[in-house]
Amino acid sequence: VCMVCVCVVCVVLFAKVRLLDGGSFSETSSREEVQDHKVKWGAKFCFQCKMSANASTGVLDPCVLRVSVRKEVKGGRSFQKLGFCDLNLAEFAGSGQTMRRCLLEGYDTRHRQDNSML
């Protein structure tokens, strides 16, 4: 997992990865400092998720994985949510190793989002 086009510098970021559908997986990445407008966690997450298909159409039901990016504040005692990206794992079923980029979506609609990509 990595993030590019980060507009903030001299901050420590980490990611929380959790399944919204199909299981109860939740884990966080290591905390890494932004360097040259990017951060690379290099983390691999292994988990099982349950996928079901519509009986009449055979199309897989959504299985959403949320990657939430957070910034350390107060010396690591707290954090601020910067944004998230939702991935529908059903779109990747049977496709092997896949790479995908997505724009970070904001939690708060009152603040303008930057163009950071996961």
Question: In words, what does this structure look like?
Answer:
This protein is mainly beta. The protein has one domain (2-92). It is built from no helices and seven strands. The protein has strands at residues 2-4, 12-19, 26-28, 32-33, 38-40, 64-73, 78-88. Strands 2, 3, 4, 6 and 7 form a five-stranded antiparallel β-sheet that branches. A two-stranded antiparallel ribbon has the order 1-5. The radius of gyration is 16 Å and the shape is elongated. The model has no long low-confidence stretch (mean pLDDT 87).
List the helices and strands and how they pair.
Elements: E1 2-4, E2 12-19, E3 26-28, E4 32-33, E5 38-40, E6 64-73, E7 78-88
Antiparallel strand pairs: 1-5, 2-3, 2-4, 2-6, 6-7
What fraction, in percent, of the residue positions are helical? under 10%
Strand content: 25-35%
Measured between the Cα atoms of the first and last residue, the distance is 7 Å
Indicate the structural class.
mainly beta
Number of strands: 7
Q: What is the succession of H and E elements?
A: EEEEEEE
| pLDDT averaged residue by residue | 87
Total count of helical runs of at least 4 residues: 0
Shape: elongated
Taking all Cα atoms into account, the compactness measure Rg is 16 Å
Total domain count: 1
Poorly predicted parts = none
Largest sheet composition: 5 strands, antiparallel
Family: Belongs to the EEIG family.
Pfam families: NT-C2
InterPro entries: EEIG1/2-like, NT-C2
Keywords: Signal
